[in-house]
Specification:
Blueprint (H helix, E strand, L loop, with lengths): L1 E5 L3 H13 L3 E5 L2 H10 L4 E4 L9 H9 L6 E5 L4 H9 L4 E4 L4 H19 L9 E4 L2 E4 L4 E4 L2 E3 L3 H12 L4 E3 H9 L8 H14 L9 E4 L3 E4 L3
Parallel strand pairs: 1-2, 1-3, 3-4, 4-5
Antiparallel strand pairs: 6-7, 7-8, 8-9, 10-12, 11-12
Length: 231
Protein backbone atom coordinates (compact mmCIF):
# COMPACT_ATOMS: atom_id res chain seq x y z
CA UNK A 1 0.00 0.00 0.00
CA UNK A 2 1.41 3.38 -1.06
CA UNK A 3 0.69 6.65 0.73
CA UNK A 4 1.60 10.16 -0.34
CA UNK A 5 2.25 12.77 2.38
CA UNK A 6 2.34 16.44 1.43
CA UNK A 7 3.74 18.36 4.37
CA UNK A 8 6.30 21.19 4.53
CA UNK A 9 7.15 20.59 8.19
CA UNK A 10 9.88 17.95 7.94
CA UNK A 11 9.51 16.77 11.54
CA UNK A 12 5.76 16.14 11.16
CA UNK A 13 6.21 14.48 7.77
CA UNK A 14 8.89 12.14 9.13
CA UNK A 15 6.76 11.33 12.18
CA UNK A 16 3.82 10.37 9.97
CA UNK A 17 6.09 8.39 7.67
CA UNK A 18 7.75 6.48 10.51
CA UNK A 19 4.48 5.31 12.03
CA UNK A 20 2.89 4.42 8.70
CA UNK A 21 5.95 2.48 7.58
CA UNK A 22 5.91 0.61 10.88
CA UNK A 23 2.47 -0.70 9.90
CA UNK A 24 3.67 -1.79 6.48
CA UNK A 25 2.83 1.19 4.26
CA UNK A 26 5.20 2.59 1.67
CA UNK A 27 5.39 6.38 2.02
CA UNK A 28 6.51 9.22 -0.24
CA UNK A 29 6.84 12.81 0.98
CA UNK A 30 6.46 16.07 -0.92
CA UNK A 31 7.04 19.50 0.64
CA UNK A 32 4.80 21.45 -1.76
CA UNK A 33 1.47 20.87 -3.44
CA UNK A 34 3.08 21.19 -6.87
CA UNK A 35 5.66 18.53 -6.04
CA UNK A 36 2.92 16.33 -4.60
CA UNK A 37 0.86 16.67 -7.76
CA UNK A 38 3.85 15.60 -9.85
CA UNK A 39 4.33 12.48 -7.71
CA UNK A 40 0.61 11.73 -7.83
CA UNK A 41 0.62 11.86 -11.63
CA UNK A 42 3.63 9.54 -11.83
CA UNK A 43 2.60 6.88 -9.33
CA UNK A 44 -0.53 5.17 -8.04
CA UNK A 45 -1.31 5.85 -4.38
CA UNK A 46 -3.82 4.20 -2.06
CA UNK A 47 -4.22 7.31 0.09
CA UNK A 48 -3.06 10.93 0.30
CA UNK A 49 -2.40 12.90 3.50
CA UNK A 50 -2.07 16.64 2.90
CA UNK A 51 -1.55 19.80 4.92
CA UNK A 52 -3.56 22.90 4.00
CA UNK A 53 -0.95 25.61 4.51
CA UNK A 54 1.86 24.86 2.07
CA UNK A 55 4.52 27.04 0.44
CA UNK A 56 4.17 28.01 -3.21
CA UNK A 57 1.26 29.09 -5.38
CA UNK A 58 -0.84 26.00 -4.58
CA UNK A 59 -2.08 25.18 -1.11
CA UNK A 60 -3.36 21.83 0.11
CA UNK A 61 -6.94 22.49 -0.91
CA UNK A 62 -5.82 23.45 -4.43
CA UNK A 63 -4.03 20.10 -4.61
CA UNK A 64 -7.12 18.21 -3.43
CA UNK A 65 -9.26 20.04 -5.98
CA UNK A 66 -6.94 18.97 -8.80
CA UNK A 67 -6.82 15.36 -7.63
CA UNK A 68 -10.59 15.09 -7.37
CA UNK A 69 -10.85 15.98 -11.05
CA UNK A 70 -9.23 12.66 -11.96
CA UNK A 71 -9.37 10.34 -8.96
CA UNK A 72 -11.50 9.25 -6.01
CA UNK A 73 -8.49 8.05 -3.97
CA UNK A 74 -9.01 8.57 -0.21
CA UNK A 75 -7.62 11.92 0.99
CA UNK A 76 -7.16 13.19 4.53
CA UNK A 77 -6.22 16.71 5.57
CA UNK A 78 -3.91 17.06 8.56
CA UNK A 79 -3.83 20.75 9.48
CA UNK A 80 -3.36 23.21 12.31
CA UNK A 81 -6.44 25.06 11.04
CA UNK A 82 -9.16 23.84 13.36
CA UNK A 83 -12.08 26.17 12.56
CA UNK A 84 -15.32 24.52 11.48
CA UNK A 85 -15.33 26.70 8.36
CA UNK A 86 -11.96 25.27 7.31
CA UNK A 87 -13.19 21.72 7.85
CA UNK A 88 -16.40 22.36 5.92
CA UNK A 89 -14.45 23.87 3.01
CA UNK A 90 -12.17 20.85 2.87
CA UNK A 91 -14.93 18.27 3.14
CA UNK A 92 -16.87 20.14 0.48
CA UNK A 93 -14.11 19.37 -1.98
CA UNK A 94 -14.64 15.66 -1.50
CA UNK A 95 -11.91 15.14 1.08
CA UNK A 96 -12.65 12.07 3.18
CA UNK A 97 -11.31 13.14 6.57
CA UNK A 98 -9.88 16.08 8.52
CA UNK A 99 -7.45 15.69 11.41
CA UNK A 100 -6.20 18.70 13.38
CA UNK A 101 -2.67 19.22 14.70
CA UNK A 102 -1.37 18.23 17.14
CA UNK A 103 -2.65 14.71 16.55
CA UNK A 104 -2.26 11.27 18.04
CA UNK A 105 -0.19 9.04 15.74
CA UNK A 106 -2.25 6.00 16.66
CA UNK A 107 -5.41 7.80 15.59
CA UNK A 108 -3.74 8.82 12.31
CA UNK A 109 -2.84 5.22 11.49
CA UNK A 110 -6.29 3.97 12.51
CA UNK A 111 -8.00 6.49 10.22
CA UNK A 112 -5.70 5.63 7.33
CA UNK A 113 -6.46 1.93 7.73
CA UNK A 114 -10.19 2.59 7.87
CA UNK A 115 -10.28 4.76 4.76
CA UNK A 116 -8.16 2.40 2.69
CA UNK A 117 -10.27 -0.60 3.75
CA UNK A 118 -13.49 1.24 2.97
CA UNK A 119 -12.20 2.33 -0.43
CA UNK A 120 -11.10 -1.21 -1.31
CA UNK A 121 -14.52 -2.57 -0.32
CA UNK A 122 -16.33 -0.02 -2.48
CA UNK A 123 -14.15 -0.52 -5.55
CA UNK A 124 -14.36 -4.32 -5.37
CA UNK A 125 -18.13 -4.48 -4.79
CA UNK A 126 -18.91 -4.68 -8.48
CA UNK A 127 -17.26 -7.55 -10.34
CA UNK A 128 -15.68 -6.90 -13.75
CA UNK A 129 -18.43 -8.96 -15.39
CA UNK A 130 -21.01 -6.45 -14.20
CA UNK A 131 -19.03 -3.46 -15.39
CA UNK A 132 -17.94 -2.23 -18.77
CA UNK A 133 -14.42 -3.66 -18.51
CA UNK A 134 -12.15 -4.52 -21.43
CA UNK A 135 -9.25 -6.88 -20.75
CA UNK A 136 -6.19 -7.47 -22.90
CA UNK A 137 -3.68 -9.78 -21.23
CA UNK A 138 -2.58 -8.00 -18.00
CA UNK A 139 -4.30 -4.77 -19.06
CA UNK A 140 -7.83 -3.89 -17.91
CA UNK A 141 -9.80 -0.76 -18.77
CA UNK A 142 -12.94 0.03 -16.78
CA UNK A 143 -14.79 2.40 -19.08
CA UNK A 144 -17.41 3.26 -16.46
CA UNK A 145 -14.84 4.66 -14.02
CA UNK A 146 -12.18 5.42 -16.65
CA UNK A 147 -9.67 3.43 -14.62
CA UNK A 148 -6.79 1.57 -16.24
CA UNK A 149 -4.93 -1.20 -14.41
CA UNK A 150 -1.92 -3.29 -15.35
CA UNK A 151 -1.48 -6.51 -13.37
CA UNK A 152 -4.02 -5.11 -10.90
CA UNK A 153 -2.17 -1.82 -10.34
CA UNK A 154 -3.88 1.40 -11.42
CA UNK A 155 -2.06 3.50 -14.01
CA UNK A 156 -3.08 7.09 -14.73
CA UNK A 157 -3.35 8.57 -18.20
CA UNK A 158 -3.93 12.04 -19.54
CA UNK A 159 -7.13 12.54 -21.53
CA UNK A 160 -5.44 12.20 -24.94
CA UNK A 161 -3.38 9.21 -23.80
CA UNK A 162 -6.59 7.53 -22.60
CA UNK A 163 -8.42 8.26 -25.86
CA UNK A 164 -5.52 6.92 -27.91
CA UNK A 165 -5.29 3.79 -25.77
CA UNK A 166 -9.03 3.12 -26.18
CA UNK A 167 -8.76 3.62 -29.93
CA UNK A 168 -5.98 1.05 -30.10
CA UNK A 169 -7.92 -1.41 -27.93
CA UNK A 170 -11.05 -1.02 -30.06
CA UNK A 171 -9.05 -1.67 -33.25
CA UNK A 172 -6.70 -4.53 -32.36
CA UNK A 173 -4.15 -5.87 -34.83
CA UNK A 174 -4.83 -3.07 -37.32
CA UNK A 175 -1.93 -0.93 -38.55
CA UNK A 176 -2.53 2.83 -38.38
CA UNK A 177 -0.29 5.57 -39.68
CA UNK A 178 0.57 8.53 -37.48
CA UNK A 179 -1.59 10.73 -39.71
CA UNK A 180 -4.60 8.44 -39.23
CA UNK A 181 -4.12 8.38 -35.46
CA UNK A 182 -3.74 12.16 -35.33
CA UNK A 183 -6.97 12.63 -37.30
CA UNK A 184 -8.91 10.17 -35.13
CA UNK A 185 -7.75 11.54 -31.75
CA UNK A 186 -6.95 15.19 -32.32
CA UNK A 187 -9.30 15.79 -35.26
CA UNK A 188 -8.63 16.84 -38.81
CA UNK A 189 -9.26 20.48 -37.92
CA UNK A 190 -6.73 20.46 -35.10
CA UNK A 191 -3.49 22.35 -35.38
CA UNK A 192 -0.38 20.52 -34.36
CA UNK A 193 2.51 18.31 -35.32
CA UNK A 194 1.84 14.62 -35.93
CA UNK A 195 5.00 13.95 -33.96
CA UNK A 196 2.73 14.35 -30.92
CA UNK A 197 1.41 10.89 -31.82
CA UNK A 198 4.89 9.45 -31.38
CA UNK A 199 5.23 11.17 -28.02
CA UNK A 200 1.87 9.89 -26.79
CA UNK A 201 2.56 6.33 -27.96
CA UNK A 202 5.87 6.37 -26.06
CA UNK A 203 4.14 7.59 -22.89
CA UNK A 204 1.50 4.86 -23.17
CA UNK A 205 4.19 2.23 -23.66
CA UNK A 206 6.13 3.48 -20.65
CA UNK A 207 3.02 3.12 -18.50
CA UNK A 208 1.87 -0.26 -19.81
CA UNK A 209 5.05 -2.19 -20.43
CA UNK A 210 6.58 -3.47 -17.21
CA UNK A 211 9.37 -6.05 -16.81
CA UNK A 212 6.68 -8.71 -16.31
CA UNK A 213 5.13 -7.90 -19.71
CA UNK A 214 7.57 -9.56 -22.09
CA UNK A 215 5.40 -8.86 -25.12
CA UNK A 216 4.66 -5.21 -26.01
CA UNK A 217 1.13 -3.91 -26.35
CA UNK A 218 1.91 -1.47 -29.15
CA UNK A 219 4.12 -2.60 -32.00
CA UNK A 220 5.95 -0.21 -34.29
CA UNK A 221 5.63 -1.05 -37.98
CA UNK A 222 8.68 0.74 -39.33
CA UNK A 223 7.96 3.14 -42.14
CA UNK A 224 4.20 2.72 -41.65
CA UNK A 225 2.86 3.31 -38.15
CA UNK A 226 1.63 1.37 -35.12
CA UNK A 227 -0.40 -1.74 -34.33
CA UNK A 228 -2.00 -2.76 -31.01
CA UNK A 229 -1.35 -6.44 -30.26
CA UNK A 230 -4.41 -8.17 -28.83
CA UNK A 231 -2.66 -11.39 -27.74
Amino acid sequence: MDILIIEDDASIAELEKTYLEFYGYAVDIAETAAAGLTLFEEKTYDMVIVDVMLPGEMDGLDFCREVRRVSDVPMMVVSAKADDADKISALGLGIDDYLTKPFNTGELVARVKAHISRYEALTSRETPEKRNVTKVRDLAVDRDSRRVTVRGREVRFTEKEYQLLLFFIDHPDVVFTRDQLFDHIWGMESFGDISTVTVHVKKIRDKLETPENLKPYIETIWGVGYRFLSD
